[in-house]
Amino acid sequence: MLYLKNVKKTFNPGTINEKKALCGVDLHLNEGDFVTIIGGNGAGKSTTLNAIAGVWPIDSGEIIIDGVNVSKLSEHKRAKYIGRVFQDPMMGTAAPMEIQENLSVAARRGKHRTLKWSISRKEKAEFRELLKILELGLEDRMTAKVGLLSGGQRQALTLLMATLEKPKILLLDEHTAALDPKTAAKVLEISDKLIAENNLTAMMVTHNMKDAIAHGNRLIMMHEGRIIFDVSGEEKKKLTVDALVQKFSETSGKEFSNDRALLN
């Protein structure tokens, strides 16, 4: 479903602020893989997701999604392949619009648009059933403005919108970092459910080592723009935070110094 082949990216090349963000990243995801990505600050985690989404052009290498080379495509042309949820709950929804209107926009993503504006009865019934999946009572508030929802409710709605049209790749960029622990756990539970039920291929960046171990079928660790550790299956299930920290030290030759990840 996804190939990254020797992907490189340097910001501000030739200046005092030059930063080699991705240094030949190679990655292959099969359909249905749910990969968590862990690493210190500046490791290249979010940069990898931005490269896939086409936020800016890569310097060299290839990005192939479901057999299509998207390396040269602009961000908006890649959008039909990708669903994305950001760290900020305010980024994925339109606050002045109703819940059902937000879902309607998501349902029409990548489709031919007409001047027709109304949401049909059939769509309303479908949206109601979809919202029940979240178990947040939003199915009884479909005409409420999204701006009135809590951060967790908005993030859950964003997840639903991002997966509504079954994207080829779902990118979760620290999507629970701005939420309190209880709400974050609920959003992760919803993420697991939507990914499993729709057999989605997903990548989740997180600073929480426990979450990285507990979720998904595969874990990769990044350091200085490279993948230094890649584990899956039974080996991943047996991982502990201590073992992950030790593995980082062995593969990078440095101590893991991200307090946020360790404290989580």
Please tell me about this protein's structure.
By secondary structure, the protein is an alpha/beta fold. It has one domain: P-loop containing nucleotide triphosphate hydrolases (Rossmann fold), CATH 3.40.50.300. It is built from 10 helices and 10 strands. The protein has helices spanning 45-53, 75-78, 99-107, 121-132, 151-163, 181-197, 209-214, 233-237, 241-252, 259-263; strands spanning 2-11, 19-29, 34-39, 60-65, 68-69, 82-85, 169-173, 202-205, 218-223, 226-232. Helix 3 runs parallel beside helix 5 and helix 5 runs parallel beside helix 6.
Helix and strand topology:
Layout: E1 2-11, E2 19-29, E3 34-39, H1 45-53, E4 60-65, E5 68-69, H2 75-78, E6 82-85, H3 99-107, H4 121-132, H5 151-163, E7 169-173, H6 181-197, E8 202-205, H7 209-214, E9 218-223, E10 226-232, H8 233-237, H9 241-252, H10 259-263
Parallel strand pairs: 3-8, 3-9, 6-7, 7-8
Antiparallel strand pairs: 1-2, 1-4, 4-5, 9-10
Can you write the helix and strand succession as a string? EEEHEEHEHHHEHEHEEHHH
Task: Give the CA-CA distance, first to last residue.
Answer: 31 Å
What shape does the CA trace take?
globular
The CATH architecture designation is 3-Layer(aba) Sandwich
Query: And the CATH topology?
Result: Rossmann fold
Largest sheet: 6 strands, mixed
Q: Strand content of the residues, in percent? A: 15-25%
The value of Rg in angstroms is 19 Å
CATH classification, class level: Alpha Beta
Structural class of the helix and strand makeup? alpha/beta
Number of strands: 10
Helix share bin: 25-40%
**Order of the strands making up the biggest sheet:** 6-7-8-3-9-10
Instruction: Please count the helical segments.
Output: 10
**Tally of separate domains:** 1
Poorly predicted regions are none
Mean pLDDT: 88
CATH superfamily: P-loop containing nucleotide triphosphate hydrolases
